[in-house]
Amino acid sequence: MTFAIHGLNVSRGVAIGRAVLVASSRVDVAHYFVQPHEVQSEIDRLFRGRSAVVDEIRRLQESITHMGPKEAPHELGALLEVHLMLLQDEELITSVKHWITERLYNAEWAMTTQLEVIARQFDEMEDEYLRERKADLEQIVERVLRAMKGSSSPIMVHQTRAVRKSQQDLLLDDTVDVPLILIAHDLSPADMLQFKQSVFAGFITDVGGKTSHTAIVARSMDIPAVVGARLASQLVRQDDWVIIDGDAGVVIVDPSSIILAEYGFKQRQRELERGRLQRLLHTPAVTMDGERIELLANIEMPEDAHIALKAGAVGVGLFRSEFLFMGRQGRLPGEEEQYQAYKRAVEGMQGLPVTIRTVDVGADKPLDESLRDDAHLNPALGLRAIRWSLADPAMFLTQLRAILRAAAHGKVHLLVPMLAHASEIRQTLSHLDHARAMLDNRGVAYGPVKLGAMIEIPAAALSLRLFLKYFDFLSIGTNDLIQYTLAIDRADESVAHLYDPLHPAVLRLVADTIAEGRAQGKDVAVCGEMAGDVSLTRLLLGLGLRSFSMHPAQILAVKQEILRADAGKLAPWARRVMDAEDPAREMAAN
Ligand code: PEP
Ligand code: MG
Question: Residues 350, 395: one domain?
C-alpha cells in the first residue's frame, strides 16, 4: 500500500530505490557491492566468521563445565546454548546468503540487513521473553562481524553502480543493480562522512533539522535527502521501494506504477536542468549591472577540492577542518597529518585561496558517537568551536602550526569560528603568534595567512567594530546565527518550523555585518546554508553581499540567479523586505 511520510527537505532532487535500514550503531559496518564472481568467496567468508564464533562458544561451554554454580550460573550455559542455536539457524543463514547472492551485498552488510529484518519481527512480538531474544541475536551478529573483521575487501567497490537509473530500467530490473536509499533513525556527521563514498542514492533520517550537520553533509553529497521524517525508520521495511522527493521533503513508500512514472519523469527533468546549468561553468559570475560576485565552495575533506574546482568555484570559502578530527576514537590528528591534509586541499585548488576554519566540534558534531555530549544540558551553548580550542591550547597550537605550514604552498585564509568576546580574540591572536614562534624555533617553513572571524553569534554581529579591528575578513555563519538569534536548536526537527532565515532580526544582523564590513573595506562572505539557497540569492545581493560560499553542487544554480540580477535595483527592494513585518510575504509579492 502506498503511503507518504513528510519530513524536511535538505537536499534537492528525486531518488527512487530500495530501502536499506541501518541502525545508527551499525553504521560503521562496511557497505559495498561484491562482483558476481566474488559471491561464493563472500559466502565462504560468512561461514568462516560463523564457524569461528561457534568454536568460541563451544570453548566457553567447555570451560564452564569445570566451574561451580557461583562462577558460572546455570543461566550462562542456557544463554550460550541459545546463541549456538541462533548461529546455526538455517533460515538466518539462508536469508543472509540471499542478500549476498541477490543483491551482491558484502557479507557484513548482508548480515546486518538481515538483523534489521529479524529485529523488527522481534519488536512486534507480544511475548516478552521472545522479544528479549533480540538482544541475543544482536550479540551473535556482533560476534560474527568481529570474527570477520580484517577479512573484508576494500570498502566501497564499484560504488557508483546504477545510482541514476531511469524508472523504466528499474521496473525491468528488479533484482540487483537498483539504487539504494539509506534509512536510519539518526546519523552523526561522522557517519555521513563514511557514507560519502558509498553506494546510496539518497538518505532519510527520523531526526535532524535543515541545517543540522548531518543535513549539511547530505547536501554536500548532492543526493536527495529528507531528515526529520519522524517514524520513517519504523514505518519503512527493509527492501521496500521508496521515492525521496528532496524538493518537497516527502518520502513515498511502496509507490504505485503511476507515481513511479511521475517521479521518473521529474528525475529526468532534473537531469536536463543540471545539464543546462553546466553551460554556465566557465561564465564569470557578474550581475547584469556589472558587479563581480565571488562564488566559493564549502568542503569537508581535502579530496573535495577537486569537486570545488569542477563546479567552477574560485576558491574554498569554508573548509570544515573538524571532519579530520571525527570518528577517530579520540585519537586526534597530529601536526604532520593535519599539515598534509591542508596541503592537499591547497594544492588541489591550484593557486586559488583556501579558507581553513579551525576545528569546530561540539554540539551536533561530536568527535565520536561514544563521546556525544549528552552530559551537558545545552551542548550548542557549551564548549564548542573556538571555546574548545582555547580550552586545549596544545591541540589548538598543533592545528595552527599545521595551517601555517600549509600556507607555504598556496593562498590560505584562516577562519576562526564562534568568537564573541574580545578576550577570545586576544587569546587566539596570541596563540597564532606563539605557533609562528614555535615554527621559527624549529626552522620550519610557513606562509602568510589572511585572518578571518566567523560572525555566527549575535553578540559578534552586534560588536563588529571589535572584529573589524583585528581581522582581515568576516564570514557570516548564518546556520548558527539563526540558531542563536532565534533560540532554535538547528538540529531539532520539532522546532524546525521556527528556524527562519527571513526573520527580520536575522536579516538585520546579516545586513549590518555586510554593510559595516564593506564600509571598512573588509571582505564579507556568507558561508552558511543561506548562501547556497537560490531563493535567497537576490535578497543577499540586494543586501550588498558579494561573496557566497556554498556546497559545490549549488554553485551553478546560484550563478544563474546572479547572471539574471541587477544588484543596484535589488538594493532598495532588499531594504523593503528587511523592514517588512513579514519579509517572506514581501519577497513573494515582488
Ligand atoms: C554556520 O554556522 O553557518 C557555519 C557555516 O558553520 P557550521 O554550519 O559548520 O556551524
Ligand atoms: Mg557555525
Answer: yes
CA angle 562, 564, 565 (to 5 degrees): 65
The Cα–Cα gap between 550 and 533 comes to 9
Give the pLDDT band of residue 539 (cuts 50, 70, 90).
Answer: very high
Instruction: Encode pLDDT of 455-498 as tens digits.
Output: 999 999 999 999 999 999 999 999 999 999 999 999 888 999 99
CB within 6 Å of ligand 1 — which residues? 216, 318, 320, 360, 456, 477-480, 527-528
Q: Which residue range is the domain that position 113 belongs to?
A: 36-148
Query: What spacing in Å lies between the alpha carbon of 515 and ligand 2's midpoint?
Result: 21
- Quick check: is 589 in a domain? no
Distance 489 CA to ligand 1 centre (A): 13
In tens, the pLDDT along 226-250 reads 999 989 999 999 899 999 999 999 9
Task: Clarify whether residues 240 and 302 are in a common domain.
Answer: no
Q: Which atom of ligand 1 is nearest to the CA of 213?
A: 8
3-state secondary structure 166-220: CHHHHHHCCCCCCCEEEEECCCCHHHHHHHHCCCEEEEEECCCCCCCHHHHHHHH
- Which pTM does this prediction carry? 0.83
Q: Does 138 share its domain with 174? A: no
Residue with CA nearest ligand 1 atom 8: 479
Are 449 and 552 in a shared domain?
Answer: yes
364 and 406 within one domain: yes
Residues 50 and 17 reside in one and the same domain: no
